[in-house]
Amino acid sequence: MAKIKMTTPIVEMDGDEMTRIIWKLIKEILILPNVDLKSEYYDLGLENREKTKDQVTFDAAYANKKYGVAVKCATITPNADRVKEYNLSKMWPSPNGTIRAILDGTVFRTPILVKGLVPYVPTWTKPITIARHAYGDIYKNSEMTAPAGAKAELIVTDKDGSETRQIIHEFKGPGIIQGIHNTDASIKNFAKSCFEFALDRKEDLWFAAKDTISKKYDHHFKDIFNELFEAEYKERFEKAGITFFYTLIDDAVARVIRSEGGMIWACKNYDGDVFSDLIATAYGSLAMMTSVLVSPEGCYEYEAAHGTVQRHYYRYLKGEKTSTNSVATIFAWSGALAKRGELDGNAELASFAKKLEKATLDVIEEGQMTKDLYLVSTLPDKRPLDTEEFLKAVAARL
Ligand code: NAP
Ligand code: MG
Description:
Blueprint: E1 10-14, H1 17-31, E2 39-43, H2 46-51, H3 55-67, E3 69-72, H4 80-85, H5 95-103, E4 106-111, E5 129-133, E6 142-146, E7 151-157, E8 163-170, E9 175-179, H6 184-201, E10 204-209, H7 217-240, E11 244-248, H8 249-258, E12 263-267, H9 269-282, E13 289-294, E14 300-304, H10 310-317, H11 327-344, H12 347-365, E15 368-370, H13 371-374, E16 383-385, H14 387-397
Parallel strand pairs: 1-2, 1-3, 3-14, 5-12, 10-11, 10-12, 15-16
Antiparallel strand pairs: 4-5, 4-13, 6-9, 7-8, 13-14
Helix pairs in contact: 1-10, 1-14, 3-5, 6-7, 11-12, 12-14
Bound molecules: NADP nicotinamide-adenine-dinucleotide phosphate and magnesium ion.
Magnesium ion binds next to helix 9.
């Protein structure tokens, strides 16, 4: 069979450890036999980030801006142990953080539902997508300790030098303080990405924060969402038969648990960090969660939501068989290929991506799965496969 042709390259960002091994296998076993792959390759593996002084991460992010669609492998975010392990000259920042800052996007995380994997919340029959604002708040904070007797103040100095001051706290004993910020531009981009994504998916959009307590900060988020909705999206939502509403974060949590799923839940940065792990776990597996960064300009970066699966990699290095779940990484590839197909009017490529997803889920529903799923699957006839066996089973089904 002739391979499927591509017109525009996708930006390919390779990564680290077990996911780097899986990356290569997915390409060899599932993609390259079927697609005449056009990709611009960037090696974001930690060794190459060290070698290029992290320039490669910036180059990859700018390529994402240029071409629109990227697929990214999980990467190590170095800590002190990694600095020793990889003999790093610097504790390089998180590549995801760098890419998010350049694209100014919103991260959408959606669980992959499959027969036999039963959510901990029995009413959840449809996926819940978490939309995480990827800029600011405590992720760009400024923190200090305050000694006993200290007075902490917020000071805003205008362009012309005039100051506005507000007391935070007068400390009797020692304590701590933190300064956080966000920008109207970033919040507006976040809101816009959420509205566009909801229209694209034809799913309701929920947004929640804590404006009753945070009467300026969180309230500002709420106002920006509401203003943009009224001005640009209300009619489009009505036409699409979907709704948007704002509620308090604690109310949202209660409603989400009682819901059947099938909505997009927009979260501020920290809420999104926490609730995406909660949602992933409650749907059954972190390895069954897709993640896409969508920029307000319409650039897409697809990845798996999990990390580099370090413990499996060390076993792999010792020559032991591993059973690492590749589903989220396969879906990162299929997501990127489908989006490339859609943007280029390449129906064959988009259709291949859908078939790849279906083959992956069919194999699992027929009872063949990696060990993490095998341990929790309720299917009566199930069989654990190792990493490569699973990919070969998907290829056979495809
Ligand atoms: P992790 O790689 O997500 O793995 C945590 C544990 O979850 C694994 O040890 C494994 O449990 C299980 N798991 C995760 N993905 C799996 C899969 N595909 N198949 C089977 N089991 C899976 O998180 P981590 O160990 O905390 O972090 C490792 C490295 O990943 C770190 O250096 C971190 O910086 C990086 N990281 C990168 C990203 C990213 O690039 N997006 C995100 C998170 C973390 P068992 O070992 O019990 O089987
Ligand atoms: Mg997290």
